[in-house]
Amino acid sequence: MTEMKKHKILVVDDSKPNIDLIVEVLNNEYTVSVAMNGKDAVQLVAENPPDLVLLDVMMPGMDGYEVCKILKSNKKTREIPVIFLTALDEEDDEALGLDMGAVDYITKPFRPRLLERRVKNQMILKDHRDNLEEMVKQRTRLLNLTQDVTIESLGNLAEYRDQETGGHIKRTKNYVNCLATEIRKQGKYPKSNITDGYIELLTKSAPLHDIGKVGVPDSILMKPGRLTSEEFEEMKKHTIYGRDIIAASERSLGEDSFLSVAREIAYTHHEKWDGSGYPEGTKGENIPISGRMMAIADVYDALISKRVYKDPFSHEKAMKIIIEGNGTHFDPVMVEIFIICQTRFREIAIEYADFDEERQTLSS
């Protein structure tokens, strides 16, 4: 049977008799280390963080209040509980210690059993807190797995229908991630709240942008050539089908579902900055930022990809076409970000190319 790991206690006091007494009381149940001044205490905590600090207030040089302030100002040590040990017994002294973040305040001379009990209580609380944090982490991992499986399952629907989807999905999700990361780095769209969580969700959702193609007839989706105007009108409906497919899943998961970004992308990635896109002809900043990102990612990938009706375009030619669409097809700021990201776009396209011809064209 594995022996339970002992909690680590750091005792900080400039009085050796006090330290000896505390070590005698706690040494059987805990791993106890000591420091006889504030400077050494801060260094020991940084090198080997304890589970609890027993901290004397009145010490020469750096006193206990200053040590506590330093520990609580550092995100790596601020959660370590601190119990003050002091001869000061005024109400204001105790209040000051608690205001600084201490969990308890024991006055000297202290009774060994009282000290032992209070330390044990804090260790029980810490164990509960640590267990709760682990439960939250496990729950978060489960939720993330649920998101991944749901999106992957929906994405597989598109792959089974569209032979051109496999590499396209991998490439476009990476393009979108690159754009979103650079947008945040450059400080663009400050009101859009592009957080780590949003970028992660956006990247997960990008593969569903063409999910609506499952509703397009095979005679149109698989046609080995350009579509007629009537066929193109039918193809355009994939944005509506995609929105409705994802919305149906959303209803089961609730209004704040992680699929909201996927629905937004599926419905708006063919809108154009000047309002000439579809399905609604939405214009400018009324197009969600996710749709604006996906528009560039989708068009770039269509240009550099081999199709039955066209050879793959070079990276330079694809760039030229997107830049020409600045202010008409694409958001001008998004084009600016694309130019910054263009080397990474090319690398992604080469890495996930479906055909050697595409890879050679991009590499030349």
TrEMBL record:
UniProt cross-references to CDD domains, sorted A to Z: HDc, REC_PA4781-like
An example Gene Ontology biological process: phosphorelay signal transduction system
Domain HD-GYP: 143-354
Domain Response regulatory: residue ranges: 8-123
One Pfam family, short name: HD_5
List of residues that carry 4-aspartylphosphate: D56
Key word Phosphoprotein present: yes
Molecular functions (GO terms): hydrolase activity
UniProt keyword list: Hydrolase, Phosphoprotein
Keyword Hydrolase set for record: yes
Taxonomy, superkingdom: Bacteria
Stored Gene3D superfamilies: 3.40.50.2300, Hypothetical protein af1432 (1.10.3210.10)
InterPro entries: CheY-like_superfamily, Cyclic_di-GMP/3'3'-cGAMP_PDE, HD/PDEase_dom, HD_GYP_dom, Sig_transdc_resp-reg_receiver
Protein's name according to its UniProt entry: Response regulator receiver modulated metal dependent phosphohydrolase
Source species of the chain: Desulfamplus magnetovallimortis
